[in-house]
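Hi W.,

Here's what went into the run:
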Amino acid sequence: MTALDRKAASGASRPGASRPGASRPKLSGGDIAFNIVNYSVFILITLACIFPFYYLLINTISDNELVRLGKIQLLPQGIHFENYVQVLKIPGILDALFVSVARTVLGTLWTVGGCAFLGYLVTKREMWLRKVWYRLIIITMYFSAGLIPWYMNLRMLGFLDNFWVYVIPGLVSPYNVILVKTFIEALPPSLEESATLDGAGYTRVFFSIVMPLITPILATLCIFSAVGQWNSFTDTMMLMPSGKFYTLQFLLYKYQNEASSLAALVRNTQDSSALANVATKQTALSVRMTVAMVVTIPILLVYPFFQRYFVKGIMIGAVKG
Amino acid sequence: MKLRWPALALIAVLVAALFLPAVSLHVHSRVEAEIASAVPASASLWALIVRGAAAVHPTLPAMARLETCSLELALGLLLALFSAAALLFPRRRLTVAALWSAALSLAFLGTAVFHWANVDASLLFGMLVSVSAGFYLPLIAAAVLLLWSALALRMKKDEAGESGEPRELALFSSDRKLRLLSGLLALAAAALFLLPAYRIALPSSVTDTPGDAAVLSRSPSLLFLALGREPNLYALSQETGSLKNPISGDLAALNAFSNDQNNVGGAFQIRSAATAANPLLLGVAVLLLLGVLLALLPRVDRWFSVALLSLAAVLLATEVPSLLQVSEADMYASASRQLLLLGLGKLTCVPLLAVALSAAAAAFGILGIRAANEPYFVNPIPAGFRLRFVAVSLCVLAAACMLLPTAKVSFSKPGKNKVLAETTLSGPDVLLFRAGDKLADPADAKGKPVYSPDDPAASPEAVRAGTDRLASRLGLLSWGSLLLVAAGALLLLLQSKWGVPKRVILALLLGALVLRLVSWLALGAGLNRDVASEEGTLYLYASLPLLAFAAFFSNFAALEELPKKYKLFLMMLPFLLAVFLFSYLPLYGWSYAFYNYKFGLPMDQQEFVGFKWFAEMFTNPANRDNIFRVLKNTLGMSGLNLLTSWLPMIFAVFLNEITRTKFKKFVQIFTTLPNFISWALVFSFAMCLFAADTGIYSKLMMQLGLNDPNNPTVWLNSGDHIWLKMWGWSTWKGLGWGAIMYLAAIAGIDQELYEAARVDGANRWGLMRHITLPSLLPTFFVLLMLSISNILNNGMEQYLVFQNPMNRQTIEVLDLYVYNITIASRGTTLYAYATAIGILKTLVSVTLLFSANFLSKKLRGESIM
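Here's what came out:
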């Protein structure tokens, strides 16, 4: 039993803990045993989730020779940042970073903006054939034409080797539309009515009344969409045959297959003095891990700030699965 | 006062930039060491200005022809220095002067940068020239100066406003003057279209004959470029007959190291002599002139001219870089561009100045509107006429579409899947019944007739009979729809005067629409399918919705405003279009499954094979084995996930038993984290953790004695237990995330239930079993049903990143299989087969979904969709 467990277990026995239903005046022996097991299991699960991130980090900042020998398992040794410096010098990696950032920003704005406005429009009962259009949009969630028709369609529309394929096809996402619609329908209708009486048109009502009220759900959608954009690499793989507009994720995927030549590439750009130092010399493994870390860091940086929005979004989503 | 230091700093930067390396030079390995040694590693701006081409190569006389843009550089730097110096003194007039000189300096410096970026690619002198940071520094400084002086102007205005002394120049407060200025600037920008955009003056020593240098020396204006009148070197040499190798002359020595890539004479080997007109540039010129007209005309809403000028400025700003930046492809486009790429001519500042002037014109237009205190757009069309105006303009656009190219006919030999000749039918061709002649006797790219009289299947006469029929039908139908649209538009205009009922107009426009639809459908009629196929152009398709909307709006022509329900529908339309394009249009691709689909051949020349590919799946033993294998993998891995789909629920129930909020939150945050990383990244983790010799897994196994150090277990690359491993990774990634929904559901459980149960003597287990779990079951049921219906769609990313030759047999799921046999293998033969698989998969998924939904309705009385 670790100290943390004990502390946690004693904490749980305190009366007046967060949920009134769970607080008991006295804990029986069975309860204590249950708490110990429960806490330990969750600590283990959490560790299993964090450890790969930590493992990757210590392996990228430790002495590369020790890493190569497999000596770095739990604690970093011989800390240096040469790997990061060298990886950022790989030709094309900054371009890929730019493409990734651009698609994340533009794609998120486009999708969330489109779904927000569309979600607002489909709440308008007076629209001509509203139900028909709504059904037509929602039903696309349940079927897909398949990989080849999808690919050939984008090809026909001229989206091959085109940056905008990352952005434009994402305008309407039925799931997001449902979320926004459900959220707007829960708002008091009087707000909109009063604005309409003052002579505001639909667009104006949307931008000045509805939009500020639905920011929580928009924030959630933004995160989902941004993470999706940042993480996707299969679209690059299929839709960029001539190698334009590679994203960081795709480079990561590519490097996993060709990291040995990559290490040579990195070493070629180094000057001779750095070459002499075995500790900071790049190996295939170190390059791979460092690129993975470079891709992870942005997510780790934004994640804590946005974590609280997930639960809300999921809850609204649960209303209509 | 405090603004002085930045100005001084900018001056320092500008002076320093003079002596920093501006271009770096790398010598081709084939250049003789003697010549190469005289080339410096880099040249500074100062050297380029003062010494010209000699700064790049001091001894080689041939180098003298290299343009260095010294004048532009010197002027640009001087103007930037002046601008910075002017900002030292806070006088309004000086600040205005600083603004102008910064803008001019940007134009000059930008031109020089573009020039050097062009020379950049040139290997003409056995040298690679690249522009380095020193070149961009003054450019950035000039941009900063421009912004700063603009801000300074604004700030002064505000300061003056606060102190109550209006010290604004008369210009900025008078909207009339501003409008005039805006118009004049736009006029100046338009006038710049007549000035040379490049200047190429070759000394006579460059070419074989002195006359050729004169032919090559040219300075095409922007208008000239817009019209596409610029010949390329090949066309020029054909024209003059003498122009053999205009850039030999004293360059003969350097030609020794000209190879395929940097062949000086290469330009002359190009056969295509076509130079395209630039419609965008022409459009900008028209927009500018219209903007001038509208700005100078009194009583026209100011927004019109501002909108036109802004549009012109934006278009010009996007077009000018591609105009100035010469690419490899331009090598063959025009004479001037070829010479620019060879470093033999130079750009003038005209294109960039035109951008600056049109932007300034738009800016002054906006200032004028602000000064006139007229912030909102006033629609000049009277309210009662607006919808009619829209309808009439749509009619006009539709009619215009009928005058534009209508169809493209492609010819091939019977049974061959190569298009040999293509003919586009323009609107006049169709309307004047000339299409038949145009389609007669198609010839391939080399001018050889496609069809010979000896071939019975496709003799010229037989083809001609078909094309004639097509031409006459198209002509008649086009005339019909054109006349109907014209009549409709006319009646719309005269509707109120003559009291035409709207039904008549509607009928006319719908008639036009129907005729247009018929001409689309009739396109193929008469043509021999084996040899010719045709497709409508964008204009043909565009005319259909245009006509539909014209009819739609004609219905409301008499109203002041569109009824709300239609207004909302119009707002919805772009989204519907996107859904159609990206979700419904791909369904058209299902037709591939019924053909022997081949790339590059029009659909109606593909060979129809019916259900062959569907049968192929089960009758061909090799395919059948593969299908059953991937189906087994798909169902196996989905099944494992399905069987353990209760894990997130249990996770949530037990996490809920933890009463320390901080710890709960901590667990929640970190167990959701893996959901937010991509599968590529998960694979990286796997690769590090399970690396054969260094990973922590193999070290651990060695410690436990389960792993032989000399023959370490290959965890990642082996094909054993793949299903379990994949299940492990997807659980690792999705467990915490899946629990969030259950946690949310738990939060919604009525607390009184717990109290009541506790009063009844239930202990912790009892509460969990009898209250928490049962309240989560509905959510669990919905999710279970959804995952059952998605059993075939387990995605491919995860399996794609983990697949390798070792485990392919057991990891390939349906989606991955389809990808592997088509796009990944770069083969195009199996596209039809893969589409057939996709169709079956979608059908099964949809059936499963509906059954699950039906089940859910039966059992719970609630739909899951």
